[in-house]
Amino acid sequence: MARFLSRPLAAPARHPLSLGAPAPAAGSMGPRCSAASCLLFLLLLGTSDFFQSYAVEVDVKDASNATCLYAEWMMRFLIKYETNSSDYKNTTLNLSSNVTHNGSVCGNDTEAALLAVQFGEGHSWSINFTKTNETYQGDFITFTYNTNDTAVFPDAKRKGPVTVVVKDTMRPVQLNNVFVCHNTDFFEAENVTQIFWNVTVQAFVQNGTIGKKESRCRADTPTSAPTVPPTVANVTTASTTTLSPAPTTAPKPVENPDTGNYSLKSGNATCLLATVGLQLNVSQDKPLLININPKTTSADGTCGNTTATLKLNDGNSTLIGFTFVVKNASASVQKFYLKEVNVTLLNRLNGSVISSADNNNFSKWDAYLGSSYMCRKEQTLEINEDLQIHTFNLWIQPFLVKANKFSTAQECSLDDDSILIPIVVGAALAGLIAIIVVAYVIGRRKSYAGYQTL
Predict the structure, then answer these.
(1) What is the CA radius of gyration of the chain?
(2) Judging by DSSP bridges, how do beta strands 3-6 and 37-44 pair with one another?
(3) Residue pLDDT, tens place only, 97-112
(4) CA distances from 7 to 22, 66, 69, 76 (A)
(5) Tell me: the pLDDT tens digits for 19-55?
C-alpha cells in the first residue's frame, strides 16, 4: 500500500503539505506497479516563497517491501511555446504540491526500472534505467507538459499534451553506488530546457539497502567551478569597499575569451563544426562582461538538411543556443545563415533564471551551402538592449561537413584586408593632390606680390 508524507527539506520547522485525496493502493496503479509499493515524500526547500520549487523523494519498494529504486531531486522546466498571436513566449513550469508517482517500477535483469511522477494540471515526467552486470544508467527521460494549464500557458496556440523525449541522460554508474549531483544539470530538446539539481538516485538497489559509496557528476568534482551564484567564468567587475575613500581607478580591461572547438555528430559522422571565442555583455543592473570558458563548456544540438542548432552549456550556469537555416532551400544556389540566438543565465545553486533573452531575427554569418563562414575579428550579436554576445576567431559550418573538416571558408568583410589597399592608395592620392593645390595657391600669391604698381 502506498503512503504519502511531507516535510520541509531544509527548515527546522515543519510545513505539512496537503496532497489531496489519499494515495491509491498498489494494485490500483495499473500493471506497471502491481508488484511494488511506493513511498513518495514532497519536501519544500526552506520557506514557501523559495521559487515555489519542491523537492521530490521517491522510495520504490518491491513485493517484499524492500527498497528497489530510490531518488531525491529538484527540477524545473523552461518552455518556449507559441501564442495565439503566433509569436513565442518563455514560461517556467515548477513542481507543485500535488505530485503522484503512478507507474514507477523496480525493474530487473530483463525489464527496465522506471521512475515516474505526475504533477500540476496534466504534467508528467519519467526516467527509465537499464543495467548491465556491473553498471546501471539512465536511458531516456520522457517529459509531457499540458498547454491546457492556463496558469502556465495562458495564451497557448496549441492545446493539449506535448511530449519531449531526451536520450542518454545519465552516464553509467557502478551497481550498488548512489549517483549524486548537487550542482545543476540541463537537458535541452524541442524548446524545453529541463533543469535538475540536488539529485540523489540509485536504481536496482540490492537487498533493500541504499549504497554508501557515491558516484558524483562532473559538475560536483573538485575541478569544477565553485558554486557561488551567479557562477560565471572570467568575470571582471569594479570592486567596492566600506573603508575611507580611495582614488578612483579604472577597472582592469577584460581579456578576449579563449577560443573553443565544438562539434556535433549524426550517428558516427560529424555534422556541425564550430570554432569561436564567446563573451557576453550583460547590462541589466550594471555592465558585466562574461567570458565563456571552453574548458567547462559542453556542446549539444541537432543537425538537419535545412535547420541546425548548436547549444552550448558553460559550467551549468550559461546556456547559449545558435540556430542556422538554409536560405532559399529550393534554389539551385543555396546559402545558410544565422537566424536565432537565445541566452539563459542560471543560478548554479538552485537553477533559477537570472536572465533570459532571445532574438530570432538575425540574418548574419551567411555563406554558400557546402562552405564554411569565418570571421577572425570581433563581431557583436545584439540579443536585446540588455544582452550582447561578442564573438572572436569565428569559424562555423553547420551543414554538409565532410571528413570532419571545415570546407573552404567565406570570410567576413572585416577580415578582408584587400579592401584596405584601394582605401589607403586613394587617401594617399587625395592627400598628395591637396598638397599640390595648396602649394600652387601659395606660389601664385607670392608671384602676384612680386609685381607692385610704380
Answers:
(1) 30
(2) parallel
(3) 778 888 898 998 888 8
(4) 17, 22, 20, 20
(5) 223 333 333 333 333 333 333 433 333 333 334 457 8
